[in-house]
Amino acid sequence: MELMFPAAIFIGIPLAIILTFITIKRKDTFEKGKKVANTNFIEDTPLYKKLLLQYKIFSIASLSCLWIGLVFAIIMLSRPAKIDVVNTELRNRDIFICMDTSYSIDEVNLEICNNLKDVVKELDGERFGISIFNGKSVVLVPLTTDYDYVLQVLDDLEESIKHSLNGHSDPLCQICEYKYDGTLWDDGRGSSFIGDGLASCLYNFPDLKENDERSRMIIFVTDNELNEITATSFVTVEDAAALCAANDVKVFAVTPEDIVDEQSFRQAIVNTGGKHYEVTSKKVFDELVSDIRLTGTAVMTDTKIIVTDKPEVLFVFMLIFIGTYFILSRKVKL
Q1: Integer Cα distance of 95 and 150 in angstroms
Q2: Cα–Cα distances in Å, from 126 out to 115, 121, 147, 201, 219?
Q3: Rounded distance between C-alpha atoms, residue 75 and residue 157, angstroms
Q4: What is the spatial distance between Cα 245 and Cα 249, in angstroms, rounded to a whole number?
């Protein structure tokens, strides 16, 4: 137990003692009324002695309650508190899924959702986020350590993708529309803006410039098939990958077989320090999960000082003693 403001004790207690002595001295002085001679007879009577004893008892008790109440008030001002220093280990790794929601990649997305659940369950203090894109990019889960919420969103994505694979497309079905809701242009400008999706995901890392000690990675799922109709993407895949490399963000790309411009796409991904996984069998997903687990994660120590105090206890005692003082003081009319 420590005092947050010890000066209140060092100043308040001596001040209370001085005021007490001044008050007692003033009570001993004659101020009002008339002096009466020959009071010895009255002072020897039993009634007088009884009333005098009661007066002294009530006087001492009331002044004691007042003084104790003041002491509690002074202690409360000094704020006694329990101070704990808590050191917490933080994992400084950020993982973002960047998922192309085109129909042509539904099967790959379904496997990604299923396999990454085990990865999320193993995380301890690391942040995880989910971004989806088509014509536009949408953040479903900003980087968070709320793994239950991440798992819930992965379940919702998985359910929506299953509906898509089964050919169900009901605008009134929320789960059917979930995987691409908000990612499509209403005026048909195009879809699968691959570079825009990756670049948007990159800049969803909240402290990209401020904290360069964190390990960051993007799990990028796409077929690299750009579908520009009336508009063009702002960023190419190569440019987006170069931005990732410049910000030390590794990209682990998962694609179907025989994607568009495979060689240039693969080279752009490798340049980030990541890896390209071409889905030829389900073993590819095991390899991806294994590589994610091997990705470097540094441990930082977060030191927090926790101050715990309960001033309400002292306040209650102060009220009790000061209240008792006022009750007793009426008995002796101090």
Answers
A1: 12
A2: 18, 11, 10, 17, 15
A3: 58
A4: 6
Q: 334 pLDDT exceeds 50?
A: no
> Quick check: 292 and 217 in contact, CB under 8 A?
yes
pTM over 0.70: no
Residue with tokens 């137990």: 1
Listed in sequence order, the residues at least 6 apart from 91 whose beta carbon sits closer than 8 Å to its beta carbon are 123, 124, 125, 126, 297, 298, 299
Asked whether the beta carbons of 246 and 269 are under 8 A apart, the reply is: no
CA of residue 161 relative to chain centroid, distance: 32
Name the one residue in this structure whose structure tokens are 């894109």. Answer: 133
Rounded Cα–Cα distance for residues 16 and 250 (Å) = 68
Q: Where are the beta strands (DSSP E) in the chain?
A: 2-3, 80-91, 93-100, 127-133, 137-144, 190-191, 215-221, 227-228, 249-255, 275-278, 299-308
Count the helix, strand and coil residues of the chain and give each as a percent rounded to the nearest 5. 50, 20, 30
**Type of residue at 290:** S
CB 136 within 8 A of CB 185: yes
| d(C-alpha 266, C-alpha 288), whole Å | 15
Between 312 and 167, the higher pLDDT residue: 312
Angstrom distance (rounded) from CA 265 to CA 267: 5
List, in order of start, the domains of the chain with CATH numbers. Answer: 2-79+310-332 (no CATH), 89-302 (3.40.50.410)
Q: Can you give the pLDDT at residue 96?
A: 94
| CB 226 within 8 Å of CB 189 | no
